Structures are given as C-alpha cells and as structure tokens.
C-alpha cells in the first residue's frame, strides 16, 4: 500500500530517537588531539584483535621510517663494498714481500751452434739412388 503524500514519512518518535549532534565547522577544521588519536587507535586495535599485527605488515612506513630505511640500506651497501675492496687489495704486512726470482738457479750450458762448412772443403754431394 503506497503512502499518501500528506502523511509524514517519519513520525515524531523516530525523529526524537534519531537526534544526533553534528560537529561545528570549527570542530571539523581542527585536527584531532593526541588523546583522541590515541583513543581511536586503541579502539581500532581492540576491535581488530590479533588481526591487527597482520594488517600492520601491509601498512606503509612513516616518511621518517622510510628515510631511515633508505639510509640504512645505503650504509649496508657501502660496508659491503668497502669489505670487498679490503679483501681484494694488496696484503697489508709490515714487512714487504720477497721479490719473485727465477725458479731455476742453475741454467744448463748453451746448446752448440752449428758451424759453417769451410770454404776449402769439397762440396758434399747427395748420392743418386
């Protein structure tokens, strides 16, 4: 059955029970105090229960924490690169290393060099077969 246009949509009892106060423009413009923020965070934690810890992993870090993470990462990379440079650099002994010399101390006598035939000797002939 359709409602008549002259009947009110909400009766007096409904309107009285549904009264709520709207914050003023000044109250909406100011940020919430620390106490209000803390209270709302506690309420959210209590309502979330154990699932709050799981949700926190998905939460992005604050800008300060993000900057600290970047600086920490850069310092770790610098430490690794310095350690690798130190590992691959020359030995750091106080006394210098002995010079490397030849491994064979006695060299063999030089091989005889072929001598040229004398000019007065008869030419050598290859025998025919």
Overview of this protein structure:
- By secondary structure, the chain is an all-alpha fold.
- It is 47% helix and 0% strand.
- It contains 5 helices and no strands.
- It is rod-shaped.
- The mean pLDDT is 79.
User: From the alpha-carbon coordinates, what is the Rg to the nearest angstrom?
Assistant: 49 Å
Helix run count = 5
Assembly state (oligomeric): single chain
Structural class: mainly alpha
How much of the sequence lies in strands comes to under 5%
The low-confidence parts are none
For the structure shown, list the relevant keywords.
mainly alpha; 47% helix; 5 helices; rod-shaped; 129 residues; single chain
List the helices and strands and how they pair.
Layout: H1 12-17, H2 25-29, H3 34-48, H4 51-58, H5 63-88
Brief rundown of the structure:
The protein has helices at residues 12-17, 25-29, 34-48, 51-58, 63-88. It is an all-alpha fold and 129 residues long.
